[in-house]
Fold this sequence. Notes:
Largest sheet: none
Helix content: over 70%
Shape: rod-shaped
Amino acid sequence: MTSPSILSKLVTLFRGKVTEAGTAVIDANATTIIDQEIRDARAAIDQGKRELATLMAQQTLVQREIEQLEASIQQDEKAARAALEKGAQDLAEEVAGRIARTETALEGKRSMAADYARNIASIKGSLDTSAGTIQQLEQRIQVAKAHQVTHSARANASLASGQANGRMKTAVDSLARMEQRLQQQTATQDAAEQLAKEASGADLDERLKNAGITPGKQSAAAVLERLKQPSA
């Protein structure tokens, strides 16, 4: 029966192997993963810019409302003064009440505009920081890719050099075996020719010739001397 401690170790081993395999896959595709992460970050920045544009549009609308309210207050103030000058106290008080309501609305709009301004400034700062970080990452990934290309080229060159050396060694060994085989064939042919000469006597004649002895060869003087002898 398997003990719990062994099962625990097997589970830990399995998790370790999975982690190693996952890490190996990530390392092998590091540049691809980083490129995708940068694209995702840029997409997030683009989304942030769209949100920023929406806030800026809202701020513009609020600012226009503020200007309209301010203009309305100025107009009502003139009307209230005119009413007071004419002794229309009730009318002046009614206009003053509308001015008070408008000023309350104006304060609310100014508060909204201030909130928009703070949020817009904060978002702009965050987007600028993120854009700068992405730019630095892109520069670093370009350097890393260049190093990777150099490393790959060196590795391939080293592999090619090793293969070339191995093939040259194989060629040298093959050439040596061929030369040895040719030498053996030449020696065999020489021995066969020598045996043939010995069998036909040509070898003896050649050795006599080399010694200056030519059996069976008559000189012209010997032939004349023989002719001078009376025939029997």
